[in-house]
Amino acid sequence: MIEKTLELEKEQATEEAGKPEENQPFLGRVSRRSFLSHLGAAGLAATAPPLMAAAQAPAAVLEPAVDGAAAGTVPITLRVNGKEHRLQLDPRVTLLDCLRENLNMPGTKKGCDHGQCGACTVHVNGRRVNSCLSLAVMHPQDEITTIEGIGQPGHLHPMQAAFIEHDGYQCGYCTSGQIMSAVAVLKEPVGPTDADVKHAMYGNICRCGAYSNIVAAVQQVRQRT
Questions:
Q1: CB 104 within 8 A of CB 152
Q2: Where is the 2Fe-2S ferredoxin-type domain (predicted)?
Q3: What per-residue string of b and e applies to 79-99 under the rule 16 or more CB within 10 Å gives b?
Q4: What is the pTM of this model?
Q5: Which CATH number fits domain 73-149: 3.10.20.30, 3.30.930.10, 3.30.565.10, 3.90.1150.10?
Q6: Quick one: CA dihedral 133, 139, 145, 148, positive or negative?
């Protein structure tokens, strides 16, 4: 019985081999060589796009490290509160992070980090700037002033003293930005009324209830100067 079965299978194999290719089962038409050839082509097609993209993309230009500086950083000198600071910075560092993290000046606060709350306000050449929206490398020739630069305990700026006198703060987190904007308002063409002051300070947003006290402090200093 077994010998007869083997003979039948051999006859069927011989008949299949004699059929035209299009009439043979799919697996029977794919040789090991052709299968590996197709597999290799598919793998090459899958990997070719990233390899081609890498070949076409311009090579990153990395500045050589100088004096132990990290690759990709750039040297810059910033003048903050009348003092020069030589730094080696990643060009993506914001002025806010540079002040707080590199120069250890935490008086400038990070609030929304999107230029909407004004907590990070500093002066650049006498004008108020949201430091979270400005890169440090943009200011090599500028005069930068932070809350630490306008007054110190025992020698406060008149605006700092007025904020204390009128209790122009609650939690105090927004206070440094409010004071920096208020000091800048003294040099800006702002009208005399409280409404004018509120409009001039609209870029400094806080959710507390100290706005009336802040306006009173600003108006007091404006009237005395």
A1: no
A2: 74-150
A3: ebbeeebebebeeebbbbbbb
A4: 0.69
A5: 3.10.20.30
A6: positive
